[in-house]
Each structure stands twice: as C-alpha cells, then as structure tokens.
Amino acid sequence: MNRLLSNQTVVGCLVLVLLHCCTGHTLPELPSVKRVQTGDQPTTRIDATSTTQPVKYDGAQLWRIGYDDQPKKNAVAELQDRYDASMWNYNATSVDIFVRGQQIKKAECFLRAANIPFEVVIEDMQRAIDTENPSLEETELWENRNGHRMTWTAYHRLADIYDWMDYLAQTYPDLCSTKSIGKSVQGRELKVLRISNGNPSNKAIWMDGGIHAREWISPATVTYIANELVEDWDNQPAHLRNLDWYILPVHNPDGYEHSHQYDRLWRKNRGGLQYGPCAGVDLNRNYGYKWGGQGTSKQPCSEIFAGSGPFSEPESKAVSEFMQSSAADWKGFLTFHSYGQYILYPWGYDRVVPPDHADLKRVGDAAADQMLQTGNSRYTVGPSGSTLYPAAGGSDDWARGALNIKYAYTVELRDTGRYGFVLPANQIKPTGDEAFQFVDIIAQEVAKLWVTSRFGGGSISARSNSPHPIGDCTVGSASVPCGSCSINRSASASMSSTHRLSVSFAAPNKWFSSPYSSGRRVAISAPIGLSSFSQQSSSCSRNSSSDDSSLSRHGCVGCWWRFALFADHRPMPFNCADIFRFWLAGCHGMPHITNYEPGTENAPAHCLLRVLFALARTANVLLAMHHHKGVLAVVGFVVINLNCYNGYITTGTPQMIERDQRAPFSSKLTHTLSKTPLYEPNDNQTDGDPRFPDFFIFGAATAAYQIEGAWNEDGRGPSVWDTLTHDHPELVVDQATGDRAADSYHRYMSDIDSLTTVGFDFYRFSISWSRLMPNGDRSSLNEQAVMYYTQLIEELHANGIEPVVTMLHYDLPQYLQNLGGFASPLIVDYFAEYADTLFSLFGDRVKVWITHNEPYDFCVEGYGTGSSGPLVYASGVGEYLCAHHVLLSHAAAYHRYNKYYRSHQKGLIGITLSGRYYYPASDATAPEVVERALEFQIGWFADPLFGTGNYPPVMVNEIEKNSQLEGRTRSRLPTFTDTERMLVNGSVDFFAYNYYSSRLVELDTTEYNPLETPSWQRDARIIQSVDPGWSRAKSTWLYVVPEGLRGMLNWIRKRYHNPRVLITENGYSDDGQLDDTERIDYYAKHLNAVLSAVLEDGCHVAGFTAWSIIDNFEWLRGYSEKFGLFYVNFTDPALARVPKRSANFMARVITTRTIPAE
C-alpha cells in the first residue's frame, strides 16, 4: 500500500506539539542507543544478547524515502539517531527504513517538518511476519514423504535442512556426501553438501546461503538449487554434471535458529559474552580481505559489527580453513542474500572494480537476462561497492582477493522491497527457478576455463583465444604422450616460499615426437636464478651471454639466454623480453626461437619444447616480481593442441589479482621528496668537482601520445590530438601524426632497456586517458589498457626503475572535449573519477603522481589562442576557465587520494607547472615588471596551490579592470569560493617544474583597447624578447639560458617558502644526430645550475628529469625536432632505439654524481 502523510498524521503531529507547548513537557521518547556513524550502509541498533520471549513487531512499518540529495540523507541519518530506525536496503535513489511501532508518529512528524515525503511499503511488520510462512498444519499437508520434510513451499528449520542433506547422501551415495566443516558459536554443525560425479579433473563451485539470519529466502533458494541438481541429475547438461558442487545452505546456523524462535529480524551470528552486552557479529564483515574497512563498525551493538578481528568468528573461520585446505579447484563462489534483486561482483570494500570487471559484468548480464525470462524479475548487475555501498570484509571479496576465484558473486534475491526480508514462502520456488538460471550461466562460464594453474593457495584460469600454427608435426619413432607439463619455481635466496605452477594440455590421444622423450612424461622446470631442464636422463643448462650489459633484467642472469640441450648439443638463443612480448601478442610469429633444424622430423617438437620452456620461464619471472604468498601480477597460460600435422599454441588473457595485496616496495623518490630539509648548502662537499647529494635522483620522461602509437588498437578511443592530427593535418609539420609514433605500446620493453642502459632511477610517463577510459569514466574502462600499463609498471619495477605517472599530458579524450573539456566544470568530476581509478588500479606500485602537465601551455594555446589541441578559440575567457578547472580537478584528485588511499598507499601528488624565467629587457625595466611576468605565468597556478589560495593580485586586479572596460558584468577570471580556495590551497606534496628557456621582458605601455579581442597576452601587458647572445636549439622557442633555471628555483624558494622541487622536464632539441654535443652542453650547464641552486642557495631540489629518453612526436613540430637521448628512425619499421652520446654522458652523471667535462 502506497501512502503519503495523511490528514490523521498531521492532526497527530499537532496534538503532540500542543501537548508540548501547553504542559512544558518534552515529547515522549524511548531510550535509544547511539548509532555509530560508519558511512553509507545499512545500520540498526541491536538490543540485549538473549531473548527469552519472541520479539513482536506490532505496528512497525517499512518506509521508502528518497535518497538522492543531501537533505534526504541527513533526514535518514536523523531517523536512525533519534527514532531508532533501521536502514534495511538502499540504492542511489531510495532507501528502505524500518521504523518501530512506538516511533511511527514522531518519525512522521519529523519528516513532515523536514518536508520529506515517504511511502509505506509494509503497513504492519508483525502481520507480514505472521503471514509469511504457512501454518504448521499446512506444512504437514505439503510435506514430502520421501525421507525428509523439505517442501520449498515453506521456510524450514535447521533440523529439516540437515536431515534433507543426510537423505541425499544416503540416497545418492555415488553423487552426494556431507561433511561438517566446523561448529558455530553455540556448537551447531556447519554442514556442507558435496555433489560430484567423482571426476578428479572437475572444477569446483562453492555456494552458500543464510549468512544473515533474517534472509530466509537464501537457505531456501540454495537448497532448492541443490535439490534440482541432484533429483534430476541424469537430465542436467554436461557443464553442470562435470563440476564439483560444495553447498553450505546455512552459514549462520545460530542466527538462523534464533530468527525462527525469538526474533524474526535478527541478522548477525550469536557471538555473545566476549562483546559485552550486545550479541553478534556480521559474518559478512568478518572475512579477512580488507577487514575493518568501509561499511563496517567496531561497535558490538551495530548490525555491521565486524568482530574483534578477521575470522574472529568460528563460522567464517571454518569456511576459510575448509576452502583453503581443500584440494578442490575453486572456480566459482556464489553467496546468496536478500533483498533487492542484484547480481554483485567485487569489489565490495570500496567503489573500485577488478581489472576483469567487464567480463564479470558480461556474465552477470547474461544471467540477469535468463532470470528475467524465467521469472520476470529484473536483476541489476554491478560491482558491490558502487552499485550498493562499500562493505569491507565480505565473503565474495575474500574469495576473489585471497583465493583468486574468478567468478565470485553475491546475489541479492527477491524482492525489491514489497516484502523485504519477510518474503512469503510462496515465492520460494519462483525465486529458486530464477536463481537456478544464474547458477547455470556461471557453470557454463566455469566450464570454459579449461586451462588451470594452481599456486600458493590460490588458482588462476585463462580462457583460450584464437590458435596460431607453429609448424608441422611428423610422427617419429620416439614419442611421448602429450599429457602434462609441470613448471616448478624454486625460491631464490630472496624468497621464503615455493610455488608450483601446473599446466594441463588438452590433447587427449595425441602424440608428438622428441629425441628427449623416449616415451616419458615431459617435465619442464625453471627455478628463479637457476634454470634447469630435466627429463630423467636428459638435462639443459643455461649460460648467459657475456656481452650483455644488463645482468638482472627480467629476472634473468642476463637478458639473452643460451640453452644447450645436452641430448644434441644444439644451442637455442632467444631474448626473454621478446618471448614475453611474443606470448602477450598471441604468438603472432616467434622471434628468436629459430635454432632448430628445419625439415627434420623432430623440428616442430624442438620448437615446441623451446616455446614451453620460454613460457615456463616467463611465468616464473612474473611470479618472482611479487612473491608474497598467493600474489601474482600477471601469469600466462598455454594450451597445446597437437595433431599429426599441426601444432598450435593458444594464449589466454592473463587474470590479475588485486594489486595492493603485493609486497610494498621502498620508494626512493617518495623518501627524497618527503625529506625536509633536503640539504644544507655546502654539506659534505670535498675538494674537487661538486657532487650531487646522495638523495638526489635522476629520471627521464615521455608522454603517452608522443610515444605509444597504436592509436586505434585494443579499445583505445580518440583524444583531442587524434582529432587535431587527423582533421587538421596542415597544422603539423609534414602532416605527421602520433598514430604509430615510437610504437611504445608494443615496444615498451625497448624503452625500459634504454632507461636501464643509462641507469635512471625513475621514469616519468603518462597514461592515456582515452586508452584507459575512452569515454572518460569507469563505464568504459578498457581491460587491454589496464593490462598494458600493468605490464609497463611491473617491468619498470623488475628493472629497478620507479614509475612516476602523469595522469594527463595534453591528450584529453575527445569524448570529454565534446562535453566542453576543461572549459566546463563537468571535467572536475570526470577527472576525479579518472584519478580514483588510477589510484585503485596502480596505486600500490606507483608512489608519485602528477595530475596535469603544463596547464599554462595547454590552457593558453588550447583554449585561448586555439593554436594547439583541442583547438578551442576562446581568447581571454577560455584559458582562464581551463586553468580554473585544472586547479579544481587537481584538488579533487588530491583530496580523493587523501580520503581513500594515502593511509595505505603512502604516495605523493603534484602538478607539473611550466614557466620561463624572466630578465629585465633593459635598465629601464622595473623589477615589478619581471615579477608581473612571473606571476602571470607560473604564479597563476602556483599561488592558489602554494601561496595565498587565490590568483596573484596583479592578475585579479588587471583582468577585473579590463573586463569592466569591456562592459562585462563580471571578471573574465573566475573566482574561487571559500570552500574551493580551501580545497585548492595546499593540495600538493611537492613542486613539480618543467624548465627549458628564459626571456627578456618589458612592460607593454599601450593603452588597453576594450574593442580588441581580449587575451592572456593583453592582460599580462608584457613584451617578451631574447638576448642576441643566447644560442638556440632546433625549436624556435628554445633558447639556451641555464642560469634561468637557477633563477627560477630561487624564485620558487623565496616566494613559496622553499618547497621540495622535482624538475620534471629539461631538454634540448636538434635534428637527431647521434653525436649530439650541443645537447650534452645544454644538460651540463643546466645540471650545473641545479647543483648551484642546491649546494650554494639551499634550494630543496630532489631530482632531475631529462626530456626525453627517446625521440618522439613533438606535437605541432611532428618528427622534425628530436629531444631524445636515444635516436629513433621513424621511417624504419623496426623503430630501434639507438643511444646518442648524450645517453652516455647522462649515464656518467648518474654513476659519478658529478658533471663530467666533455
């Protein structure tokens, strides 16, 4: 029944108010227990630990209230605090609130006064409870007489459920068995039903129900599904019969019985005395993954009390220990709840998703479609934390995060609120039929996971992809069954655990020829740091190439491996990085796997064994990256399908587990940028050449659009620079594009090799927003992009190079530009969500973040003059809107990190500012003019962040005055609200700065003409020029003024109280010659300027970044100007990286910590 506030209610409110006014008495209230604020999740007050008389809910009601704005949310919180109301369920638009009968009138008055409407969903809760289950007499009539009492027309007690399980085990002993996996708080058994055809290769699915006591439809549905499986087993499809099913119908037996006997709406378990006067722990907050996080409470009286610690309760502990110790090959974890009609997948602990969320969504959607067709019930599919609310410590998150079970789902069963937790028993069968469809879909997906690897207490699976032939297979005299291949990884000296990776090959009754086999089963092993290949009497040893300068890359002793197979003494060289790339690319070609004898009968087998060994070694290298127990970044699995004439390798998409499970790494850059003071002038300097302090670190930089290429591959969407180069090719020298660029999307290992060759400490690169999230938000999250950046970051760490990530380096997704880009306030929320996604995906491995690169440049040229991407001509207005929204979006990202990530990720956030240093053009130029030029450029952004929290006064006054002259009603320069000023000011952890050149400056004394088009240039009123004595690089704007860098560092020191500075770009352009002496001279002079600023002036400079590690696409100059330390010939398909002399120079700087004389 839908009902808004009635006239009778209004009269009741007036009576209460008159009573209060006339008598002076306070309005009557029942004693209340303070509600603990735990964020957005259902909470309820819990009363005494034990109940001897059944709790009655006469007159209690369930209300639905809008939940789509802050006043309504505040009202709901007030209802819980003051009127003992309980939140049963909610989503983004509404919330279901349970109100006790004694509080109805007062709660109605409160909502009336707040002008908040509501509807009554359940008029009388006790009446709903009384009519929910059939009477005992009806139940007796419907009871099944086949050895058990279960009917699925009524909700049954625990004894009936356990008797039915025993009946199945006795009736179908070859199919069913039961096992007690532990006991509850009050000593009740936790009984699991196993359904299996006995096939040892079966994968396993776990199902449970009743983790929350009052959700009776859950055990009823789980038992219904199990009964349908067993009783109609012979007619079930193969994908259901070829699985092992482990079913725990009642996860919370004490609470379930309590809800039947004493309190129908009881939720938790019955843990008692250890928690004081309040009973019970929410078992779905007690699992060990992210225990104690969002959506939980430390207060025992709360309905979301997480317990005293992870797995503090015997019920959750029993499930954890059973699943982890079981030999079952877990591939599915299905936990059934009510209510709301949701299919939910991880993560629940926060509003984040796993890398394969699109696949989980696909499977969930398929199940929802089938459920809709079966029962006409519409189920919503999505990640738990975002679709409903964050709730840490859930069983599904644990199954995914700890056991790495791919298909981990929570299903919130019927209904959507009409009956809530007291769903009538006549809904059991239709709910069960729907849920069976869900289970069927999951089983189909699990059946497709036919390549399996189990390691370290967890398991990972991959779906096969398209096959690629690797050669002809001729049957020879020596053959072995293609049965199995075991890949063992022994722990190296730095490891404390041993992993075993097993790969099963689906090639029954197929044979292949090999001189190493002699009919034995093949065993391939590759211990980290000590590779070996053994097959009883045969062995293989590895010698690293002596001319390889990188002895630790990729976890190998040398990057090039040479294997001598003693059986025939033929060497087999291949590059492990190339094998890795070849494997990830889906085996399109086989570089460096060539030294077998073509035309011989054994050639394919030789190649095959070599491929297997390479893949085994690659998998083990990846395991070595993060050897913390049960943690794996990326693992590839291979299925070999052999027949008499053709061999195939099929590759599967690697499955990734959550990153912040990995062992933490020590961030040298974070430590350096956090140290204050960094250095005292003239500290620890001895006679001779000045040295960079020990803390000072060196890096190199690139940007996504300039190097990645692959502009339309693997789901990448267009950026504003794709639009510019494709739609306006005339704007770029030689009509060049970044479509291929340096092809770093495919050749990132070559970039890492270059970084390693020089010895850089860190690598600053940017992530392509349009590749990761083409439409700007998580709805378009691209798993291929997640994979790419994960691999890049992991390889950097494997090579001892720290990643420094720039979130946006000019290449805004075109989709967002269509919405206004940085001229629109919409961008602030989009950027915050993008940043949040980056933190959640990569934040455990990335500790230094740059939100934006050079906002002065892309705002003035992109949104003001319209001369660069995104080509918006809005002179005098657009550049200021852009800058304003850049600062707000940066602050939003910063505070998002503070709120959700900093405490455990412990990273730092900055924004890279650019700006020339200025010198007076003549003796007549006043110092104020120089200061004005600096404030209009770098102070425009730095003052709000590091200074007053507002734009420089000279900008505010000048632009406001000019705006008035133009007849405008407000300044063209946006203003910060007080709240925005507080958010922006201080929202940086260090000062990131790009320096290339300087200028002379003088004041433009021309009278301002309001009829001319406004612009930043006209507002600034500065005239820039160059000194004829300054030399120039290939770029027409780049004049060599090294002393300007020292001047700018000191200006920053004085104006902003000597912040920690990271120089994030500095470089020189030429034609790309290998003998680049002018670049060496440029770097030497600028590094000397930095040394002087640090050692003599006391500037807190932490590090220096060279632009760039490789030649790349230089925006409007295309490939006509080269900044790289490594030469790239863009007309050569190989795009090889060739070191220039400057690379050797920079390597010597890093090694000696001095500036060598050239």
Automatic annotation (TrEMBL):
Pfam families: Glyco_hydro_1, Peptidase_M14, Propep_M14. It comes from the Eukaryota. Residues 532-553 are annotated as: Disordered. The active site is at E412 (proton donor/acceptor). The keyword Zinc applies. This is Peptidase M14 domain-containing protein. Coiled coil: none annotated. Keywords: Carboxypeptidase, Glycoprotein, Glycosidase, Hydrolase, Metal-binding, Metalloprotease, Protease, Signal, Zinc. It comes from Anopheles culicifacies. Belongs to the glycosyl hydrolase 1 family. Belongs to the peptidase M14 family. GO terms for molecular function: beta-glucosidase activity; metallocarboxypeptidase activity; zinc ion binding. Its cofactor is Zn(2+).
